Each structure stands twice: as C-alpha cells, then as structure tokens.
Amino acid sequence: MRKNNRWMMLALILTLAMILGACGSNNTGNTSANAPAQATDPAGDAGSGNADTGDATAAPGGVDTSKEVKLKMIFVGPKPVDYDLVFAEINKKLKEKINATLEGEFLDWSDWAQKYPLKLAADEDFDLIYSANWAGYNDQALKGGFLELTDELLSAYAPETMKAMSDVSWDQAKVNGKLYMVPQNRGESVEKLILYREDLRKKYNLPEINSPEAYANYLKTIAENEKGIAPFTPETGDWKYHNLDRVLLKQQNEWNMFDLDLPFAFKLTDEKGQVFNVYETQEFKDLLVYYKDLADNNAWSKNVLNSKNDHQADFKAGKTASITHNNGTLGALMALMRQENSPYEVALADINQGKKKSVAISTQNGTSIHATSKNIERSLMLIDLMQNDKELHDLMMYGVSGVHYEPVGDDKYKALDKNPNYTGFSNWNFNSPLNRDNEAFPQEASDLAKGWEANVYHYKLETFVFDNSKVKTEIANVGNVMLRYAIPLEYGVIDDIDKGLADLNKQLGAAGLDKIQAELQSQIDAFLANQ
Amino acid sequence: MKRHTFWNDLRNYRVLLLMLAPAVLFYILFAYVPMAGIVIAFKRYDYAGGIFGSAWNGLDNFRFFFESGDAWRVTRNTALYNIAFIVVNNALQIFAAIMLFEVGGKWFRKITQSALFLPYFISWVVVGAIAYNLLNYDIGTVNAVLRGLGLEAIDIYNTPAYWPYILVLVSAWKGLGYGTVMYLAAITSIDTEMYEAAEIDGANIFQRIRKVTIPNLYPTIIILVLLAVGNIFRGDFGMFYNMIGNNGLLFSATDVIDTFVFRSLITSNDIGMSAAAGVFQSVLGFATIMTVNYAVRKYDKDRALF
Hints:
heterodimer; A: D-Maltodextrin-Binding Protein, domain 2; D-Maltodextrin-Binding Protein, domain 2; 5-stranded mixed β-sheet; 3-stranded antiparallel β-sheet; 19 helices; 16 strands; about 50% helix; globular; B: mainly alpha; MetI-like fold; two-stranded antiparallel sheet; 15 helices; about 0% strand
C-alpha cells in the first residue's frame, strides 16, 4: 500500500510536470508569436498615420478611409434598451462618412468603478473610452492607459473640434502638459442645489428656503411632523464628504477642492493658491455643529451610513423630502416627475445665493483613445463627427427622431414615450454647442443656471492638475481615515464633536497628510510661477 | 508479480488519474500559473509595461499597508473573526449533521437539509439588504418588535460592540447547510457494524454518538479545519463589505484586511499596492498552515495534510 502510494505520487508529479511544461512552452509560443505582430501593428499604424498626416495637410479631408474598420467604445452606465436600433442608424451614417462602424460596450453603474480600470489594465481590445475626472482620468492617463493626443493628430483628424473648442478646455484636460482626452465642448455647472418638496413647505407655512438656517428649519419641521418621510437622504457611494458639503462647505465659503478624496481646499480668491486642511478650519467646526443639530433632530436616518437607498428614487416616491445634486440632474428629475403627473409639488433651492460659483472643468466628461488602439485616425474622426455633425450628434445624444425624441427648433427637443429606452449612459462626452435642451426642462432650473453664469468665477488654478504619483501611499491612507473618522463625524453619529475632530486630525497626521500638502503646494507654486 | 513502472501505473490508474485531471488542471491554470504575477507587488505598475515590463520599486508597495497604523488591527480582526467562524461553524455543522443522522425519517431529513442549505445560495448583497431591514434603527424589524414590547430600540448600526456576534451568527447561518452535508456524508460512510456492536453492548444514543460517531469524524474535521486555517488571514470580503459597507463607526470592530485594502485603494486603483497586501496575506496564511500541519503531525502523523 505504502509503496503503491509512492508510485502514485510519482506518477502524479510527472503528469503535473508534463502539463506544466506544455503550458509553459505554449505560453512562450503564444507570446513570441504575438509579440512581433503587436510590435509591428502600431508601427504600421504610425507609419500610415504619418503618411496620412502628410496627405491631410496637403489636401484637407483627403484621409484614406478605403479600408473599413470596426471601432469599439467603452461607455459607463447600462446598455440602453434601444441600443441596437440607435446604433444601427449611427453606423449607417458612420459607414457613409468615414467607412467605419461603432460598437459600444457598457459598464453598469453598479460596478463600473471596478471594471473601468481593469479594461485598461488588462489592455483589452478597444479604441475609444469615455473618460472623466471623476472616473480617474488623471490617474489612468499617468499610468499610460490613454493615447497622447498631439496637435498634429488633432488638426489632421479632428479639425472641426479644433476649431470649436476653446483653449481653456484643452488646457484643463492636460495632465503634466500632455493631452489625453477630447473633452466635452459645453460648459456645465457642477455646483449643487437642493431639491425639496414645495407642497410640504407650504403645508407648514415655512419661509422661503434661501439660507442654511431656513433649510435646517425645513428639515427639522419635516422630521417632527411627517412620520415615514426622511427629511434628507444622501447619495450613496464611497463619498468621503457629507453629501451637503459641496453646498454648505465649498459654495458657502467660496472654496474649491482639487479632489473630493482629499481634505484640501483653497479660497477661490486667493491669488497664491494657498491650500489648507479643511478639517482644521473654524468653518468646518461650525458646520459640524450644524450637522450635529440636524442629526439629533432626525433630519436623516440614524443608519444613513448603511443605507443603500437611491436618493432620487426615494424622492420621486415621496419617501424623502429633500436631496442634493447638480442642476442638470435635479432639473431632469423635476421634468420627469412633472411629466408623470407626480402628486408632489417640488422646487429647487439655492441656499447660498450670490456666492461665487465655479464652472465644471472640461474633463467632467470626455473621450479618450486607448493607448493600444489600432485605429487612431478613425477614432479621432469619429469624435470629431459626434461633437460637430448635427445628424450624428442628435442620434448619439437623443436617439432616433420620432421614436425617442422630437426636434423642437434647432436647440430644443421634446422627449417621447420611448425616451427612457435611450438614456442613462455616458454619452455626455459628446456634449457640444449642438446640444438640444429638453423642452420640459423646468424653467426655474434654467433660470438658476443662467443666474449662476453671471456669478461664475474664473480663477488661476482652474487648469491645475495634481500629479499624485509621489504620494500614493499617503493618499490611500488619508482616504481611509476620512471614511472612518470624518464621515461618521459629519453625519452626527459621534457624540463628542471636539473629541471626534481631534481624533480625525490626529489620525490624518499619522496617515501622512502633511506630506501630501507639501507636495500639492509645491506643484501649485510651480504651476502659478509658470503662468 | 507485475513490476511497478511508470507506464504500468499510468495505465492501471488511468481512470483515477482522469478523474483527478480536471482538478489538477484547474489549480495549475488558476493557482500556479498566475503565481508568477506575484512580481506585481514589487513593481510600479504601468499599462505599457504590463506585469513583467513595469519598473521595479522594491518594497514601496508594502509601505501603505504597514504605515497606515491599522495593519495590526485589521490583521488581528481578520484572524480572530476567522477563528471564531471556524470554531462556531464547524461545531454547529457537526451538531446539525449528527442530529439529522439520528433523528427522523427520510423526508424530514431531506427537507431539513434543503432548508439548511438554502442560505448558502443567497448572495451577500442580498444578505446585507436583509440585515439592514432587520436591524436598522428607524424601521428595522428587530427594533419594531422591541418598541412593540415597550422596550427601548437599540441602535445596532452605530454600536460596534454588537457586530462580532452578528457577523459570527450570520456566517454560521449561511454556512450551516454546506458543512452539514459534508459531515453528514462522512457520518453515513461510518461502518454500520460499529453501531450494531455498540448497540449490542448496550450503549445508549449519547454514548454511541460520543464513542462511535465523533471519533470517526476526526479525520474529516481535521482536514476541513486545516483547509480553513490556510485562509485565516483572508477576510470574507463579500460578507464584511455588504454587511458593514462604509460605516466608519463600525470599522474598529469589523475591519478586516480585505475591506481595508479595498477601501484604501478603490480610488487610486493601484494594482501593485493591492497585490502587496495579497502577498502579505498569502505569506501569513502559508506560515500558519505549515505550523498547524506540523503540530498535527507531531500529534498524529496519519492525520496531517502532508
């Protein structure tokens, strides 16, 4: 028996070795076969690219498109129901214009954050990808996921975009002086507003909600009188700030933050761009008192940190009495509720009127080209068309005319019943001056946006991008501390504010906050000195 | 007598070897080949270079974990939770298996077994949602019952002290059916003659369980525990993340290595740093299993894994 066993083991090991050996040689065979192919391909492309550039400069529009190509683009958000219908139309036009077809791949909202970096890290085969500052644009660009877009490439293959886009937009999209995306070509406000229930405000005879105090009063009144309605519901996600901080900390104090994963801000009006730790300011301390008072009065669920409720769905269903988001999103929600004859009367509140607003930087939405794309020219031409060709732009943004929308004049549209079948994913990277507005978009939201435009404050650091590669370790640890210590503090579940704040700052110090701050400040100083 | 040659063995055991092949292949493809990727932990990963072409950066990737000040806490939590899971789950599973074996007719046994097995198939996301609806302060079932009885509601989600118990309980509930079936199979394979002999000797049911069933289960128990011990430094991410989420207040009691690393790196997406944490876990796991196996060998040579 013993002896038999030993022989069995030997047999097993030998089989193992054989299989391993086979695997190994297979692998090497594969890689060696693939490597030259991969190596020659970009070279070939670059070669033809150069030749094409020569052609294009000699005769604009004379790019060789005789060979049909299939382009693949990665979007975030769920695949729209009518994807086949709309993309068939898009492809008909694309085939005609640049002899190419486009296939979309969609990363659902539930797990895009995990999948998105993997698509790049695994070097999957695709040409274009939706990119955005909130989707790690800087980081992915620094890691080499995106192709650098040079002026030559752009002027050869995206001439219309070159003409239409402002220099500021291009500059904002540069990482360490290099461009990796074609940003959207339409300003968008990122400032947050509050959407609340006007019918409830009237019911309790509350004054107009135009200040943080009036808002707190509204929340407390709802908490006291409306059982079963959560006064405020935050957006779920890995946020490292209170959902209202963008309104009550950033807008209220006229600050700006570089990165919502870091506790640094600077004053908009500060010419020197001096950054400071948000948590060490008196303003933050005062806000904690404000939040604590709200939490103690049940302005949000005691277990808000574990809730996974979708705040917009809850608001629509009348389960919560206020939420916060940007103007576009809230306006769209209002339009939808009115269209569906919701029993609730809703309204927008700007609780820090007259404060300086900053406009979204262009990298809020954009399109990048995969570093290993084999169809660089056609990809750029596609972006050019999507942003500047009325027909294709309409198709991409609003779907099929007569099915999903009905054009109203040149710059508005009316949503038809099937509209929800083609929406909800990231086509915003193709935003451009050709955009149509939803006819049903609430007037008050448009008015607010217009009013803000007058208050938009342009500051020197608008185009500054932080290169965090030297302080990654510290950033990981600081982010963790923010989640663990700051979030519970802000949502008022820690009883002793002073102690909580002291703990937070102590932990941040240990996590290496000072090192990040020094690095950030030195980059800012260098940036400002260069201007 | 036939000589033992490699080819003879190969032929004689071809059916067994064939049956073994898928498992061997699986481990080669998904455990041994990817092991080369361990180098990522020592590299500054960039997309152009990929796994093998990126630049080396020594132990830089390990800095984040050990400089966080939380390394000890999360490592301890992970190990303690897993020890609790192993002890409680195995004890309950053995208990349930013996009960099922001793009690009831065929139908009762089958139905109970299926009912116990059901939670195993519920995903942690759903379990997390169920737990939230049971335990939350405002509308949770538990607190509704407490209020109905005129008692004070308890704020479970803001009190770290409850969580070790809740997590052990949920883990036991979810794993019960799976383990029970395994132990039940082991019990069924015990030679019935032993039970008959015990009965003739006048042993009652408890004596039978103590003297026959349990000693015969030792090999199974030891193998299952040994296998579980190897993963003692890996937190069950699905469980901890879906039950606790981003509730920082509970982290002191519930943070395990996996959730900690996920949270730290989800925004920076640094593959090298997360690989470093994985290497740390693997090295600890390897050391543990070697030690435990050595201890078992010392005690009883035949029962060790290797």
